[in-house]
Specification:
- This protein has 352 residues and is α/β, with parallel strands linked by helices.
- It has a single domain, classed as Rossmann fold (3-Layer(aba) Sandwich), CATH 3.40.50.12710.
- It has 14 helices and 17 strands.
- Strands 2, 3, 4, 5, 10, 14, 15, 16 and 17 form a nine-stranded mixed sheet that branches.
- The termini are far apart.
- The structure holds S-adenosyl-L-homocysteine.
- S-adenosyl-L-homocysteine binds next to α4.
- S-adenosyl-L-homocysteine (SAH) binds next to α4.
């Protein structure tokens, strides 16, 4: 049995499934899911994320979070959390960089939120700390100050797609035609959660809706508002995304998302406005990743590291700096949003 057989059987029994159900099965099915079965990161995998490009990314994020911790009076016990830690590289870089901030790592309880048992096992080999825990959801997030990072996490949450039809919406669904998975449209229905999108869309426009996003944002921002802390959310996306942003990546190239279920990374762009609508604490201006990293001093850090490098290693380091920051590379496509308590300053590098 393959994931395709499983989905075909599901459609035969229940009718067409939503795009969100399709994404969920493809990414997280416990036997066949993309994240359940492989390590997709890096040159030999399907895509490369910022922490896998250079240690500078995690170092600067670690120091940014530690600065928030200092400014908020160095709480003596707090949660240092990551959503969707992949290989664990980002958290390992955060912990290494912040080891030089007196008291920070000693006061931290590290929490790794990872749905894939396969990737959690990988992270257990990469990240070490005297107090570290793995959970598959944010449900039992401790009632304590929370300093959190998420990189390319929200784009992996299952999304619905709707096409506007008058004042109603037709949902994109996946059915089966001649044995092949085939996308189509469901009946035109009123969708209350899209009422605000009737103001800025026209007939035929596609909007995306990720139901898993708001409950996660509510939980983390509840802790930040109640106990202090900060969150940095990195992803590709925009304010109120519009249009079809669903894509499948395999071996660093876009592929047909319905060709081979479970074998490609599936994402949609993150609607950062939806994050702020769910937030129970203050939020910063949505800022391009390149601008944020420059403000935190990535070029000075790059120059310092370059002193110890030569030849191919130096060139790779220069390329990595460019990739993370340049507007033609990840610098503009990727954005960062900061979440922080109403009575505190925004995280360094971000403003309101
Ligand atoms: N942050 C990492 C990996 C990004 S890929 C990096 O930057 O390299 C997405 C990560 O989120 C993977 O670790 C995946 O297993 C995890 N993930 C996806 N959906 C999830 C969910 N619903 N709950 C928890 N983790 C999830």
């Amino acid at each position: 049995m393959s994931l395709r057989d499983h989905i075909v059987a599901r459609v035969a029994a229940d009718g067409p499934i939503t795009l969100a159900d399709y994404m969920h099965d493809c990414l997280l099915h416990p036997t066949f899911g993309y994240y359940a079965t492989r390590d997709p990161f890096g040159a030999a995998g399907d895509f490369v994320t910022a922490p896998e490009i250079s240690q500078m990314f995690g170092e600067l994020i670690g120091l940014c979070l530690a600065q928030c911790w200092i400014e908020q009076g160095r709480p003596t016990a707090f949660t240092l959390a990551e959503l969707g830690p992949g290989r664990g590289t980002l958290m390992a870089d955060i912990l290494r960089a912040t080891a030089s901030v007196p008291g920070f790592t000693d006061a931290a309880h590290v929490l790794m939120i990872e749905a894939s048992a396969h990737l959690a096992a990988l992270q257990q080999r990469t990240v070490t700390h005297p107090r570290i825990t793995w959970r598959s959801t944010v449900d039992d997030l401790p009632h304590a100050p929370l300093f959190l990072v998420a990189n390319e996490f929200f784009d992996a949450l299952p999304a619905h797609q709707f096409q506007r039809d008058g004042k109603r919406w037709r949902e994109r669904q996946i059915g089966v035609k001649n044995g092949a998975l085939s996308p189509g449209l469901g009946p035109a229905l009123v969708q209350r959660m899209l009422d605000h999108r009737l103001d800025d869309t026209q007939d035929g426009d596609i909007v995306e809706y990720t139901p898993g996003l708001a409950p996660i944002v509510e939980t983390i921002t509840d802790r930040i508002a109640s106990y202090g802390g900060a969150a940095l959310i990195f992803d590709y996306g925009d304010w109120r995304s519009l249009g079809d942003t669903f894509q499948a990546m395999q071996a660093h190239a876009p592929v047909d998302p319905f060709a081979e279920p479970g074998s490609a990374d599936l994402t949609t762009h993150v609607d950062f406005e939806a994050v702020t609508r769910a937030a129970k604490c203050a939020f910063t201006r949505l800022t391009p990743q390149g601008v944020f990293l420059e403000r935190l001093g990535i070029t000075q850090r790059a120059n310092a590291l370059a002193q110890h490098l030569k030849g191919d290693a130096l060139q790779a380091h220069i390329d990595a700096h460019r990739r993370l920051t340049h507007p033609d590379e990840m610098g503009n496509l990727f954005k960062v949003l900061g979440l922080f308590p109403p009575n505190a300053a925004p995280p360094p590098g971000l403003d309101i």
